[in-house]
Amino acid sequence: MVQDKTLSSRLFDIVNYALLTIIALIAFIPFVHVVAGSFTTSAEIAAKKFVLIPTVYSLDAYQYIFSTNTIFRAMSVSVVVTLVGTAFSMLVTALLGYALARRDLDGRRVLMFMVVFTMLFNGGLIPTFLVVREVGLIDSYAALVVPIAVNAFNLIILKNFFQNIPEGLEESAKIDGCNDFGILFRIVLPLSLPAIATISLFYAVTYWNTYLNAILYLNDAAKWPIQVLLRQIVILASGLDADASLDSEVPPPDQAVKMAVIVVATIPILAVYPFLQKHFAKGALLGSIKG
Amino acid sequence: MRKKSMLLVLSAMLAFVLVLSACSDQSGSNNNQPSPSADSGSASEKPSEAPPANEEPTEITIMLPLNIAETPPDTIKTELEKLTNTKLTYQFFPADTYEEKLNASFATGSLPQVTYLKNQATFIKFKEAIRDGQFWEIGPYLSEFENLGKLKESILNNTKVDGKIYSLYIGRPLARQGLIYRKDWADNLGLSAPQTTEDLFAMAKAFTEDDPDKDGQDNTVGLTDRNDLIYGAFKTLSSAFGTPNNWGEKDGQLLPEFMFPEYIETMDYMKRLRDAGYMNKDFAATSKTDQVNMFQSGEAGLYIGSMQDVNSLYNNLVKNVPTAEVATHNKITKPGGEFGIWAIPGYNNVVLFPKSAIKTEDELKKVLAFFDKMMTPEVANLMYWGIEGTHYTVVDGKAKEMDDKDKIEREVKGFKDSVIGEPETNGQYTGYHELQARIDAEKFIIENEPVAIHDPTAPLDSATYTEKGQELQKIITDATYQYIYGDIDKAGFEKAIEDWKSRGGQKIIDEYTAAYKANQ
Amino acid sequence: MQEARAEVLELIPPKPRRHSELKKRIWKNKLLYLMALPGILFFILFKYVPMYGLVISLQDFKPYQGIRGSEWVGLEHFKRLFTEPDFLMILTNTLVLFGMNLLFFFPIPIILALMLNEVRIAVFKRTVQTLVYIPHFMSWVIIVSISYVMLTMDGGIINELIAYFGGEKINFLLSSEWFRPMYILQVIWREAGWGTIIYLAAIAAIDPGLYEAARIDGAGRFRQIWHITLPAIRSVIIVLLILKIGDVLELGFEHVYLLLNSMNRGVGEIIDTYVYTAGLQQGQFSYSTAIGFFKSFIGLILVMAANWLAKRMGEDGVY
């Protein structure tokens, strides 16, 4: 790649790098605060208000949350649900998305409108609950996946990416004897890696953040994912649930514990992104095939 | 052309939804069959309902809010099953979304045999369904049980719906509110416990201005408060000024507290405190955590709220300020006033027994028998304090928690909020405390009882209040803060009251007054 | 249900075309329909079937009576909403926050993505990308409580700084003037980095040869961005814009609720927070549903208008 070294280009770079550094720092500082808070004591958090570098180090919070197997159990539920759910969602979404991206599909506009319609109107909690129950999903892990398997937003985005693939490529594949499945899996998907990575990430994050469905559809607390534990601790520790905080016989969880749970519950999903990042560069693939 | 086709699509969509709704309505009604539509049955879903043979443990499923970090392990449950000859399934759901779960379960007929609500507000919401006969009326059975019969008449009275008892209550001390303050600061400045609101004001002033921690820096403030007019400082202060509790009688009418001059006096007092900087300026946006932080970091010296908070406040405070001392205090009045303190209706939650899950009177009696046993000292102690020797020991006839607080919190505390009655009725131990301020607090709580100011509307009903009382209350809450912050004046506050009245408040006044007179 | 679907398909005469021809084309694409089937079934089962729940907005719904047993009240609940004394205020607040979202938040991820795209040092790019993406995983509770700690007049860092430089402390948390800026800044802070992901994916699909050619033609950085990058991601931007417009309702209930207090309610109360208070009351299922329906309806109108506009401008739109 040729680098242009004009003055204005250099100036652009300097400003750009400086701005991005500042933005990155602003985005990062609160997380540093949370991590620092998790490695210190509640007393320090109370006294310092905004801890960035603790003066007292303590692993108590981590010891506390790892002293039972609840967090491990909840984490494994979340990891499995996220992996299986993302794979399942991607499959169904890609199949439907591809069909809808094909301009020769009759009724695609109606179908797309129907999809958009569901983004705006929903029947509400109780009717959905009844469907989930009729399908027999109550108390099964599938209840965390199937009822949210296709996200309309993700579907539309994916379809849009598919649409931008030059139709000529598909035509030539058809001539080579590929059927629609073949075209999707051999041509379209490999050419859409950045989009696949993006939408997988969106799904993964949705599954990782699953909270209310777990409480509604799973009566057995042993099946709950990590978000239930995280949210419960954050809400209690922040003194937001008035009834719970009224009963001083049950003091709210420690602030340091709150921070530690946030760290533990966030790190795995944070780690997904850098892992997917390499696929964003591979989009250059398209150019090479075309050329 | 396009417009037309879109119109067609749109109408087709609507038709589609309608067709679907037609077929789904059927599935809806299929679902409704097992749902609590009066006495029809849903045997398929609950294997736990098979009628047990004699001596076989009763199977009971219990749904209740989770007020701690995680669902407790089976330690207590196993013991409980042994003591009560039951087979229990506890379903804890996070308190914060408990109402969603409750509504979904209720609307789909899947409430378990024993359903704890979340708080009094949830109870009010369920009254309509209770009237409709969705839950067992248990009043007539109570006398059949030795221990359930001991439940306090006055509190049961507050939980009645149209004069009938449908629920068991989880008891709470009537009035735990009072003052917690920095004893060492007061001593440094030569101040004694405040007797009047003016003493309190002087103390807040001295704590802010006179360097009570003697570190030569201007880094302290008097009162720390939060965004809660009820359990924060405001309502407790309003009692000191002699304001009625939520509602008061005036000229034969029940009127809301904010129509009494004492309420205005309280607002003026808070305004003075805040304007002078003797309390946290942002209190209307301060959460309990941030409020408590100000006290625990050694920044603020006064805390008005539940006096039982003193333990956790003190324990965390001494980590930052090892020399700190705290004291509790009550009986603050306005100069020349008479002491009184607002009281809750004696319970903080209730248990209901859905007819959809309990089919027969027989079964109901078995479930009630479980609660009857729960009100024996042995079971009540197990659920409140844990296992003797493991979670607590008995010192001077009181329960003293063992040192492993984490273990207690994990294993026992989840069950604490489900114990029926109170120590006087279920015979459970009261707590043993070492912190003097807490010992005092417990004493003050008992002393508060005879002078408690009760809410006259607690046993009464107002249809308008149930429908939009909370929404209307927002007008008053906002106006109260705005007055304290100086955004509106007395005329503005009067206007808010007029607004409240015209939007349904007057109807609430009339309905409560009528119910009040009928009740006398 | 099958019948209903067929009916819908038949209702659309795409172009004057004979039925047998249509049938032939459908048969030719049978595999495509098969591929679409699981997804379509999902939407029918979990999205369309539950929609019968919307009818409770026309009822006085009682959970224990079910939809069949509840009393029909017609448009009663809608009337109540429109005659609510605060209705105009709530609607205005909602629309203002929505407008701010569109105006101040929407462009930011695009700009950020473009900035990131200009970074040549891979490590720097990846690091920045990862860092700006983190805030999305902090819940609003945490973000609002961190903001509180920084902004409070009782020793918050920002106000201490203002005071240190001789300024007057600003009442950020309890004022109507600061509510909206605070809201939008927090939204930007939390979601900007997350929002770049889609754009970065779209940018990744651009043929690098285009830049090369532009550079040979002597185009500067801004001209490259303007003539190559932006046009390449235009369709994504438009799709997202339309979807965002349909999202008038999603202003983040939890976020607004946490920021709301008695002093800023006049500008901060939005439809979502109002529904929450209304829903707190007994028997308000129907009222809440009616309000939700109203919100969705506005969203639908806006989406259809935006889509129509996009199509007029020669874009694909979302449907």
TrEMBL record, chain A:
It is found in: Cell membrane. The chain crosses the membrane at residues 14-35, 47-65, 71-98, 110-129, 141-162, 183-208, 256-276. Its main location: membrane. Keywords: Cell membrane, Membrane, Transmembrane, Transmembrane helix, Transport. It comes from the Bacteria. Residues 75-276 form the ABC transmembrane type-1 domain. GO terms for biological process: transmembrane transport. It is a multi-pass membrane protein. InterPro entries: MetI-like, MetI-like_sf. The keyword Transmembrane applies. One of its GO terms (cellular component) is plasma membrane. PANTHER family: ABC TRANSPORTER PERMEASE PROTEIN MG189-RELATED-RELATED (PTHR43744), POLYGALACTURONAN_RHAMNOGALACTURONAN TRANSPORT SYSTEM PERMEASE PROTEIN YTCP (PTHR43744:SF9). Belongs to the binding-protein-dependent transport system permease family. This is Carbohydrate ABC transporter permease.
From TrEMBL, chain B:
Keywords: Cell membrane, Lipoprotein, Membrane, Palmitate, Signal. It holds the Pfam family SBP_bac_1. Residues 1-22 form the signal peptide. Residues 26-57 are annotated as: Disordered. Residues 26-37 have a biased composition (Low complexity). Gene3D superfamilies: Periplasmic binding protein-like II. PANTHER family: ARABINOSE-BINDING PROTEIN-RELATED, POLYGALACTURONAN_RHAMNOGALACTURONAN-BINDING PROTEIN YTCQ. This is Extracellular solute-binding protein. It comes from Paenibacillus nanensis.
UniProtKB/TrEMBL annotation, chain C:
This is Sugar ABC transporter permease. It comes from Paenibacillus nanensis. The chain crosses the membrane at residues 31-49, 87-116, 128-151, 192-213, 290-310. Residues 91-306 form the ABC transmembrane type-1 domain. The keyword Secreted does not apply. It is found in: Cell membrane; Membrane. Keywords: Membrane, Transmembrane, Transmembrane helix, Transport. InterPro entries: MetI-like, MetI-like_sf. It comes from the Bacteria. Its main location: membrane. One of its GO terms (biological process) is transmembrane transport. It is a multi-pass membrane protein. GO terms for cellular component: plasma membrane. The keyword tRNA-binding does not apply. Gene3D superfamilies: MetI-like. Belongs to the binding-protein-dependent transport system permease family. PANTHER family: POLYGALACTURONAN_RHAMNOGALACTURONAN TRANSPORT SYSTEM PERMEASE PROTEIN YTEP, PROTEIN LPLB.
